[in-house]
């Protein structure tokens, strides 16, 4: 079997060269060359032949406008010039509103009328984008909101963040789709390959795509250790091995940030998540939901989950996002954790992360931890389902007021609060004496220093035409397509693969587009009896156990085994009844139980995000599956129920152990 995409080694080399950019210690301020300035409403000051943006409009060069100074010096100067309200605006991370959309989504772009008061009156300068537009339009929309920020009193540029945009799995609040970008397997696919160089190559390509459309912050990677097989967010992790997660997480951070030693000027700041223990959710019930608000771990288990973050921290990730649940049981350093969600835990954030592990970057809370959990959040019904505006994850602090929650989070060590635009409550916390202005200043300096390092105070604007050209570049798409093929895992093969289309041309399909098979040179038939073989693509099994909860209705829960009545399993039985050989190709976004599939399928080819064409190339021997399972596949649901949610790969007598693959 040969590789259908030549030049992969050269592509990988180019991407890795991009990943290892100038070290973060080389200050932009020290660069001898005049940086390009982006202007829409402010003017230029010229000093000794050098040009600077007059962001405060006073006609003089103030220190924060002087790109020759260090980010730290510029941030300290700017903080001294800010009002209390302007400082409060830095400490919330909102959502850029979309025209006619929900939670920032829109096919038309940003609602500039709605964005203007957020930027000009509440002084918010950090926002997540949920747009999925072609690259040139994304760039134009980024420029439009940056122009609003430039016209403000101090001209502070926006930091625009994004959930992962380059994969297959899309759930609002966890992963987005994006038009035109390179499409790669989920992080589980990179874990199946186990190659840090490939992760860095992906991240370097994605970094260029983000910056081309005006995105500066990645709300990723998710290095949570995948220890509970029913958990619906496993697909976004590197699997169940803490050491592998650490190595690949470090590679991801280095590639996105542009340096293995911290954030480079052309980098995208990573926010590694979720600190720590999120993968141990009992029964897999996610902590976005009230019914999943608690996770239980021993001290040793928590330390194993923490170890998965080591590589990302060593690579100098600019940000860390605490997890949602109340972590019950462990005593790191001999201290019991507080009975709050992790975003409010001083033990986890300050004692362990900052003091013990030396983290100096930004601590950004996950979304909704300051919001009230109403009845639609606690116990939604068919008549009153949970809506986006009902989302809250204020676990353990429900009895506190919103200003008290802000005060408690800052006392724990947070710098910024995600998913809120409530600057009034933060100001109320200061005015009530719950937070000092000096404490605000500490976090504001951290947040502003990143903007300075990324060059946003010189030029926050991007070129729409260049964005379209950069994202359409074929080299990155070719490497992404190759990775989709290589990251698949051949679990079983009774002499069927690779198939020779000259001998087996007629195929009966389930879960695959007929056009893809036709393009691969196969003839699609209507029934198994007419076919030379059957090819069945399947999702991992799941149940809809909490359909009225916003995330419960969108994330997978419940069983992992295929049962009578499941459409893919019925297709498998139909093909076997016709006596035709079968290739079964499951998408393992969770560790499916395949016990009753193994005897009926002639080959099981698992993937973690792959196009129909990528699956067909492996089936037909035009590409080779090189992956190994990044977690075990349990033998039965009884074994799943009996295992410890906080312990990796501990089910009894697994059908396939972690690392399996032909």
Automatic annotation (TrEMBL):
The keyword Hydrolase applies. Keywords: Glycosidase, Hydrolase, Signal. Gene3D superfamilies: Glycoside hydrolase family 3 C-terminal domain (3.40.50.1700), Glycoside hydrolase, family 3, N-terminal domain (3.20.20.300). Its EC number is 3.2.1.21. It comes from the Bacteria. Residues 525-662 form the Glycoside hydrolase family 3 C-terminal domain. SUPFAM superfamilies: (Trans)glycosidases, Beta-D-glucan exohydrolase, C-terminal domain. One of its GO terms (molecular function) is beta-glucosidase activity. GO terms for biological process: glucan catabolic process. It catalyses: Hydrolysis of terminal, non-reducing beta-D-glucosyl residues with release of beta-D-glucose. Residues 96-449 form the Glycoside hydrolase family 3 N-terminal domain. Residues 1-26 form the signal peptide. InterPro entries: Cellulose_Degrad_GH3, GH, Glyco_hydro_3_C, Glyco_hydro_3_C_sf, Glyco_hydro_3_N, Glyco_hydro_3_N_sf. Residues 642-662 are annotated as: Disordered. The keyword NADP does not apply. Belongs to the glycosyl hydrolase 3 family. This is beta-glucosidase. It comes from Novosphingobium piscinae.
């Amino acid at each position: 079997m040969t590789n259908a995409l030549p030049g992969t080694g050269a592509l990988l080399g180019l991407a890795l060269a991009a990943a290892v950019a100038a070290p973060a210690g080389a200050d932009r301020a020290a660069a001898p060359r005049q940086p390009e300035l982006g202007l829409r409403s402010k003017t230029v000051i010229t000093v000794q032949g050098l040009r600077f943006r007059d962001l405060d409009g006073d006609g003089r060069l103030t220190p924060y406008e002087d790109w020759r100074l260090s980010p730290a010096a510029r941030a300290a100067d700017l903080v001294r010039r800010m009002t209390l309200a302007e400082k409060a605006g830095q400490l919330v991370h909102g959502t850029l509103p979309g025209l006619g959309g929900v939670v920032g989504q829109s096919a038309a772009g940003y609602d500039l009328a709605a964005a203007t008061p957020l930027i000009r009156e509440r002084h918010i300068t950090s926002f997540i984008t949920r747009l999925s537009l072609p690259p040139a339009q994304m760039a134009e929309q980024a420029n439009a909101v940056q122009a609003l920020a430039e016209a403000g009193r101090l001209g502070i540029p926006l930091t625009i963040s994004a959930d992962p945009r380059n994969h297959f799995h899309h759930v609002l609040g966890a992963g987005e789709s994006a038009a035109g970008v390179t499409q790669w397997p989920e992080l589980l696919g990179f874990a199946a390959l186990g190659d840090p160089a490939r992760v860095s190559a992906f991240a370097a390509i994605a970094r260029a795509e983000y910056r081309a459309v005006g995105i500066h912050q990645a709300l990723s990677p998710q290095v949570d250790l995948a220890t509970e097989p029913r958990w619906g967010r496993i697909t976004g992790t590197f699997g169940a091995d803490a050491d592998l997660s650490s190595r690949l997480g470090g590679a991801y951070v280095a590639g996105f940030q542009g340096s293995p030693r911290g954030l480079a000027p052309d980098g995208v700041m990573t926010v590694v998540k979720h600190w720590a223990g999120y993968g141990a959710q009992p029964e897999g019930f996610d902590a976005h939901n009230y019914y999943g608000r608690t996770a239980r771990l021993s001290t040793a288990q928590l330390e194993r989950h923490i170890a998965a973050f080591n590589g990302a921290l060593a690579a100098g990730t600019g940000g860390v996002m605490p997890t949602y649940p109340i972590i019950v049981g462990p005593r790191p350093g001999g201290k019991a954790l507080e009975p709050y969600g992790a975003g409010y835990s001083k033990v986890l954030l300050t004692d362990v992360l900052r003091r013990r592990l030396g983290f100096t970057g930004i601590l950004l809370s996950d979304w909704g931890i300051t919001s009230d959990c109403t009845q639609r959040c606690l116990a939604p019904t068919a008549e009153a389902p949970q809506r986006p505006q009902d989302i809250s994850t204020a676990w353990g602090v429900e009895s506190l007021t919103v200003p008290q929650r802000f005060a408690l989070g800052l006392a724990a060590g947070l710098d910024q609060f995600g998913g809120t635009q409530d600057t009034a409550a933060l100001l109320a916390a200061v005015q009530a004496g719950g937070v000092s202005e000096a404490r605000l200043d500490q976090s504001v300096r951290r947040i502003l220093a990143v903007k300075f390092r990324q060059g946003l105070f010189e030029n926050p604007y991007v070129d729409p035409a260049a964005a379209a050209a950069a994202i359409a570049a074929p080299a990155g798409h070719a490497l992404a397509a190759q990775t989709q093929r290589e990251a698949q895992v051949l679990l079983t093969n009774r002499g069927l693969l690779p198939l020779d289309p000259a001998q087996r041309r007629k195929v009966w399909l389930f879960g695959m587009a007929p056009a893809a098979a036709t393009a691969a040179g196969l003839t699609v038939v209507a029934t198994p009896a007419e076919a030379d073989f059957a090819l069945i693509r399947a999702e991992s099994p799941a149940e809809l156990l909490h359909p009225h909860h916003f995330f419960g209705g969108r994330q997978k829960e419940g069983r992992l085994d295929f049962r009578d009545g499941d459409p893919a399993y019925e297709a498998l039985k139909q093909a076997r009844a016709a006596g035709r050989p079968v290739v079964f190709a499951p998408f393992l976004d969770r560790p499916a139980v395949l016990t009753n599939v193994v005897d009926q399928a002639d080959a099981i080819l698992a993937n973690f995000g792959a196009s129909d064409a990528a699956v067909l190339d492996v089936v037909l021997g035009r590409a080779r599956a090189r992956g190994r399972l990044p977690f075990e596949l349990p033998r039965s649901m009884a074994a799943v129920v009996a295992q410890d949610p906080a312990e990796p790969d501990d089910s009894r007598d697994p059908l396939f152990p972690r690392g399996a693959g032909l």
